Structures are given as C-alpha cells and as structure tokens.
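Task 17 of the worksheet. Students: predict the tertiary structure of the chain below and write it out as structure tokens. Keep your answer in the requested format; marks are given for formatting as well as content.
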Amino acid sequence: MAFLFFYLDEKTEQEKHLIKQLGSERLARFVKIAADLELPVNLHVVEDDIHYALPILKDYQIKGALFHWYEGSDENLALLHQQAHFISVSPWIFVDPHYFEFAKKIPLDMLLVESDSPCKYNGVQGEPNMINSVIDVLAKHHQLSWDVMATLINENTKRFLKI
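Model answer:
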C-alpha cells in the first residue's frame, strides 16, 4: 500500500489537502482489509505524511507496520518507534548521504532492509543481493558483525511478518 502523494509540488495547498484526504480514505479501506485478514501492512509514506497514516493504523489496531524507505524528522522516527512500527533501509544509503544519516538513527529493533529492486541507484539496476551491502554498512556503523546484524534483521522480519 502506498500513499500516492508524490509530485504534488505544482498543486495548491487546498489541492494537496484534498488529494491526501482521498488517499487517506483509500488507505483506510486497504488497512481494514489487512486487519480483517491479519496481514502485514507495508506503507510508502513520505516524511510528515505519516500523520495521515498513523491514525488509520491506530483505528484498525495495526502494530508493526512497515514504513518502506521512510525518511523523516527525529520526532517522527521516535513516534514510529514508540508505536512499534518498522522502517526498511535500501541501497539508497550509498547514493544519498542525508538518507544514510537518517538510516543510522533507526533503532535496531525496528530496522529492516530491502533492495527495492528493480529500482535503479545512480543508473545501477537494483538486485535483491544488494541487501548484503546494506547490512554490512549498518553493521559497521553499529559496531556489530555482519552475522549479528543479519540475525537481528531476520528476527525483525519475522516479527513484521508474524511468523
């Protein structure tokens, strides 16, 4: 599920609000289905737009949603952590230093990784095995071995998928 709020720069504030409101209504329908079927919820929510998503997750008692490739403020990161959600980190950390700095702040108990394949990173086609490099860099940052970081992420993935 994704909030399709990209490319709203050319819109007026009123148009943006209407688009986001309609997107929220659509998201609520999908989250209800996920809740009814006890399925994991994976969201692509841009920065402060989490304030549209979080009340919907709360209404349907969704804990542990995955915020795919999320990057936002320290306050929003703390809010997501407090509500026991997950954030996935992609190979974009090798392209965007700001994103990498954010990724370093993600608490380990909410950290997941992804390739976002077939996304391209500076013209390089994304591949699933790229997560190994992401794990390696995050492990070094946290002064953990690759195996310990991979195990931690594996356990987080199991919690996200409820397996």
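Marker's comment: The mean pLDDT is 90. The beta strands are 42-43, 66-68, 86-89, 111-113, 120-121, 124-125.
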